[in-house]
């Protein structure tokens, strides 16, 4: 009995300790400007760090604090713009992030949708995160017994991009709510099976931190010149999920640049000529609905090796786009509906183009 009691006590103590160690392992992420004076070093910088976006003054780059010396050698004129970018979201968390989902309420909402639309929706678990959190996908399709194309919609690969979850949850709810009364929504679901994954990176989302267990999840995917990469558990699981389905298209939501982007991202070379017209046409039509930019990822941001769109396009032959919702990662909750409105028509265009 004493041995059993000791084991139970150790389990109680070690589980929180594991969570604490994982939290402590998250790097402090700083935001830098690489000015025009150092632009010739951008190929090397982009190999090592996340290029977040370009501005008139240069490129904004996310740098783990432990690697600041390496960055500063590559960009001697670099300017520190913000230390510890995750502090913004942690401050919001202390205020309760009223109006925003938590990981628990995302899960409860998915289960509620399965109950409310039992004939259209099925909730699936496709794996666990590195810290053991379940990975959920909502399978949605209309009632028609017809051949349907499969589409995957994902958000919150970066755990600090909270608005992506709010917008996608809102739009999925609209699609289901209007299925029985809106001919356009009905036609979309009669022709499409949607796999909706609201939180790709639950460990980061739970803590409101950008990375997943110390790594940038949207630089972890294999791509044509690096096919044997070994990504974080949450990315490995979503890759396996995609690989197990016959996906025709994928749409990965990020924030907060205001862009619709297509592959390739690992190189400035364009996709094959057979695919380029559709990428250009659909992304431009989507952008025309809300004033976002549209283009190939290196044209809009910079070369980004290991992104989701490249993997799904390369490995699964999907019509793969990445969305950067405009504004900020965590706007006031009062703006969530407006952000969903801003992105609704673009999503319908994407689904109709599959």
What does this protein look like?
By secondary structure, the protein is of the alpha/beta class. The protein has 2 domains: 55 residues, Alpha-Beta Plaits; 260 residues, Zn peptidases (Aminopeptidase). The protein is built from 13 helices and 12 strands. The protein has an 8-stranded mixed sheet, sandwiched between helices. A 4-stranded antiparallel sheet has the order 2-3-1-4, with helices on one face. Strand 5 and strand 6 form a beta hairpin. It is globular.
Mean pLDDT: 92
Structural class: alpha/beta
**Any idea what the shape is?**
globular
- Gyration radius (Cα, Å) is 21 Å
Provide the helix percentage. Answer: 40-55%
Number of strands: 12
